[in-house]
Amino acid sequence: MRIAVVGSGYVGLVSGACFADFGHEVTCIDSDAAKIAALKNGIMPIYEPGLDQIVAKNSAAKRLLFTTELGSAVSRADAVFIAVGTPSRRGDGHADLSYVHTVAREIAQNVRNFTVVITKSTVPVGTGDEVERIIRETNPQADVAVVSNPEFLREGAAIEDFKRPDRIVIGIEDERARAVMTEVYRPLYLNKAPLLFTARRTSELIKYAANAFLAMKITFINEIADLCEAVGSDVQDVAHGIGLDNRIGGKFLHAGPGYGGSCFPKDTLALVKTAQDHGSPLRLIEATVAINDQRKRAMARKVARAIGADIRGKTVALLGLTFKPNTDDMRESPAISIIQGLQDGGAKVRAFDPEGMEQAKACVSDVTYGADPYTIAEGADALVLVTEWDAFRALDFPRLRSLMNDPLFVDLRNVYRRELIARHGFRYVSIGRPKEDIPVALSTAAE
Ligand code: UDX
How far apart are CA 147 and CA 162, in angstroms? Predict the structure, then answer.
């Protein structure tokens, strides 16, 4: 198949590279000439494990091209994916669809034969109808079928998620699109990834409902963690205990500082707005959004309480800045709220992150960056694990103890257990676990 992908960001670039890896002829299009030039030289605009190799392999095989010119790629394509950004609109939280609409008009001006136009960006219910209307209005002769095909890619695991999806959701209104989309995804279809065909609006809602449910699940365990601290239970054991029920499942039950990223915060807000606009409010998701926002801000207070009443002049070292490991993405990261809260209290903040420090510089100020955990720990009054990078899973605590002014470790991802940390003379604060650890023998028996 000849495929054009408009938008070479997280979704478009990963999707285009993986479609090429399936053997399709793919052209990735972006209006950012510098990004396209970098891609032609094998330089990735984003940090995504394995992306540079898959792009290099398929570029070398001439199956993957990059261009700023939308016209020629679209006119030759059997399928055109719209993978441009749909950020939260300033002020009201609705999805900003201006990029999608612009691209729809450009596609309409350049289609030559029957073409399937697919919205892969996360778009509110009804956007496919709008794209169809724009195309027909722009070019009444255009013979297109507009399809919804949302992605379920996690940053840091995007290629894995693309190649081994739990399902592929395809929303169609024109039966001619079924054959084309089956052909596009044939390699996955053959390895039994279920291809779920639905109506277009249903497909659009599946994406939002999935993200909203996952965000709610995380928020649920985060609130249970607060209750665990109040009643003296262990949230990790509670998560394990409920997760063994296959109706609940153990994933996305890790209590932490709140969810971030470019998807959950944006998509939950957009879904809440869609629901309100249609007179069917989603009160559970409204609560999820509010609770998560409050939680990220509350984390700075948790660190301040651990240090002691007054944090003015204290030095706090943060391990991790990105919203999750294996990405350089700082969007809506809890670290941003934590830094602002600590600085408002008069503390000095240092930080190390394996990939995110460059991006962080555009989000926060007055932070001192270090080359590794030990550099930033020197003279610090607290060490706070914010993002669970593998690089932080085997810290040298005796070395940290010798460097720090006050041996306090605040573990916002429950990476460690108290008895290990206490053995090295640290005070240990974590999320949703009792002040004193349940004897290891007891908790091991439960595992
Ligand atoms: C998410 C969805 O998982 C993915 O399917 C969708 O396509 C895009 O949005 P992503 O935002 O990349 O992917 O990351 P994810 O791994 O889902 O984590 C989102 C946030 O939730 C992160 O801040 C993470 O730290 C947090 N999280 C996740 C938890 O706090 N606890 C968990 O158990 C899981």
Answer: 18
